[in-house]
Design goal:
Layout (H helix, E strand, L loop, with lengths): L22 E3 L4 E3 L4 H5 L8 E3 H7 L15 E3 L4 E3 L1 H5 L8 E3 H111 L3 H6 L4 H5 L19 H8 L30 E12 L5 E6 L4 E6 L3 E6 L4 E6 L8 E4 L5 E5 L4 E6 L13 E7 L3 E8 L5 E7 L5 E7 L2 E6 L15 E5 L5 E5 L4 E5 L5 E5 L12 E6 L5 E5 L4 E5 L5 E5 L7 E6 L4 E6 L4 E8 L1
Antiparallel strand pairs: 1-2, 1-3, 4-5, 4-6, 7-30, 8-9, 9-10, 10-11, 12-13, 13-14, 14-15, 16-17, 17-18, 18-19, 20-21, 21-22, 22-23, 24-25, 25-26, 26-27, 28-29, 29-30
């Protein structure tokens, strides 16, 4: 091709990158050389259609030139940013301008389309689905909370009504008592008056009889009671009770009822970043080795070794049965030792995205950051400091991991050993709690041996030893699946210990008692055992950036580096 009219002289094979590509796959939109066609057809996920490149080019529908309607624009003027034809070049309007083949631009745009489609389907759309699920949960929670508030308000109203009823009854009793006293005084006075009236009537009758008699003896016996009757009975002077109602103070009544904290609605970034194309998004599928290959083993000096975490592809942090955490290179050289701040045994360790070491202290309920630990294949200088990031109350941490969004995921158990939950922290701020499934059942057992890891698709994977299961929930906390062991070994006890995930979104968990590693895919399907490579009681696991697996053997105190992908 004429270099004046093209961006490149030849098209290279997309697989081997070296040979000239005379062929083109219409399905995959991929340039191929003859030697790579068979390899391309080995991908059985698509029905490929490979044709000569000239045939493909002849089918392209190039735009018509707006200036020369009989011509097709097969070139793009870079300076003018418009499609041009050969007549446009001959006209002299584009002298000195750089021209690109429209086919090259077409291919580049197709690649952009493919990347955008891939990112939309595999990353962005699932994230929006998770957001929609969270919103649905929020609506349900909002209704439940509103019903709870209403129930609490009604309960307080009923309590106030009971108190008011009791007070009214007490006041009524006081009225009844005063009424009884009043009536008793009146009836006493009435009795005395009626008695006197009766006696006066008798005296009047007696006097009338004496006035009519001529019997001197009877008249001489008369004794006057006028002085007695002149002393009239006491007159009751009664001060009647009054009820003085108090003016109802609405503000005081509101205080008695209680107060509502105001509703606070804020927005915040979700924190789950979508991987950029070509980075972590959908790496090409890699076949697993039938038998893993032992690369190296590193003695750590621990009597019992529990955890390993990659600081880099060449350096690993380890945690065993004492208060010291150790950093080794792959030659087995000890680069640094760090003692826990409290002197307690660390429950778990993890390396953050920025290269810091964090550890969980079960005894004093804290999460701590060891600063001054970053290194680039060299021995470390002194200056290590330990900062307490989180201190829990009522809960104790025993597992942690650092996420792609730079959050910390903690798994913790209540002080009474009855409850277990996973909590997401941003710095020292609690962002999310995961404890129950949609039916309100606990997701995790109350046992203490648990480890967790975040998958490439943001799923949270927990190895729950006492439950005999790997429990996987989405980033929104919805249960996705439980893996309870390989279907090829039904009835065999399964007690998962350490757990990690790799670039393929596969989940690896340590089956200590059976001396092997289970590999399952991101949907819980069993893929393969890693064994027959001298593994003894594997416990802690981690994977480096190249998908090499590091296994902490609890009884031997060794870290073994394994290759399990071809």
């Amino acid at each position: 091709m004429d270099p004046r009219y093209s961006a490149q002289d030849v098209v290279r094979c997309a697989l081997c990158r070296d040979a000239v590509a005379p062929l083109y796959c219409n399905v995959c939109h991929t340039h191929l050389c003859g030697d790579c066609v068979e390899k391309h057809f080995s991908d059985k996920s698509k029905v490929h259609n490979v044709v000569p490149l000239e045939q493909f080019l002849s089918t392209l529908n190039y735009p018509k030139c707006p200036t020369h309607p009989t011509k097709q624009c097969k070139l793009q003027c870079e300076q003018c940013d418009i499609p041009i034809c050969t007549s446009c070049i001959s006209s002299g309007k584009h002298i000195g301008h750089k021209q690109l083949e429209m086919f090259a631009d077409f291919e580049n745009k197709k690649e952009v389309l493919r990347r955008d489609l891939q990112e939309l389907e595999k990353s962005i759309f699932p994230k929006y689905q998770e957001s929609a699920a969270i919103i649905k949960t929020q609506k349900t929670d909002q209704l439940k909370h509103s019903q709870k508030l209403t129930a609490e308000l009604n309960k307080q109203g009923e309590a106030l009504h009971r108190e008011i009823h009791t007070i009214i009854q007490r006041k009524q009793a006081e009225i009844d008592e005063m009424n009884a006293q009043h009536l008793s005084a009146i009836e006493k006075q009435e009795g005395e008056t009626n008695k006197a009236l009766h006696e006066i009537k008798q005296v009047i009758q007696e006097l009338k009889s004496l006035l009519d008699t001529s019997d001197v003896g009877l008249v001489s016996k008369y004794r006057s009671r006028i002085a007695e009757f002149r002393k009239l009975p006491h007159k009751l002077k009664i001060s009647l009770p009054n009820f003085l109602p108090q003016k109802i103070n609405r503000e005081e009544l509101l205080k008695q009822i209680g107060s509502l904290r105001p509703l606070s609605i804020e927005t915040e970034e979700q924190g789950y970043t979508v991987p950029s194309p070509g980075a972590e998004s959908s790496p090409p599928a890699r076949p697993l080795l039938d038998v893993p290959r032992l690369i190296t083993d590193i003695p750590t000096g621990y009597d019992y070794l529990y955890n390993v975490s990659c600081l880099s592809d060449e350096e690993i942090w380890t945690r065993g049965n004492n208060k010291i955490m150790k950093l080794y290179n792959l030659k087995g050289e000890l680069l640094k030792s760090v003692q826990t701040k409290s002197g307690n045994l660390p429950a778990d360790i993890a390396v953050t995205r920025s290269g810091g070491l964090v550890y969980a202290d079960y005894r004093d309920r804290s999460i701590n950051l060891v600063s001054g630990t970053q290194t680039l294949f060299r021995r470390l200088v002194s200056g290590t400091q330990i900062q307490t990031l989180i201190t829990l109350r009522g809960w104790r941490p025993h597992g942690l991991c650092s996420t792609a969004s730079r959050d910390l995921l903690l798994i913790m158990t209540s002080d009474d050993y009855e409850q277990t939950k996973v909590v997401r922290y941003s710095g020292s701020t609690e962002k999310q709690t995961i404890q129950y499934d949609d039916q309100g059942n606990p997701l995790y057992s109350s046992g203490l041996i648990k480890y967790l890891s975040e998958n490439r698709n943001s799923d949270i994977c927990v190895a729950d030893c006492d439950a005999g299961a790997v429990v996987v929930v989405s980033a929104a906390g919805k249960l996705r699946f439980r893996y309870t062991g390989s279907p090829s070994t039904p009835g065999e006890p399964f007690k998962p210990y350490g757990i990690t995930t790799d670039s393929q979104a596969n989940i690896l968990t340590a089956d200590r008692d059976n001396h092997r590693i289970h590999i399952i895919d991101q949907d819980g399907r069993f893929l393969r055992f890693l064994h027959n490579c001298g593994l003894q009681c594997p416990w802690g696991l981690c994977v480096d950036s190249r998908d090499y697996l590091f296994v902490a053997e609890v009884n031997t105190g060794k870290v073994k580096k394994l290759q399990y992908y071809k």
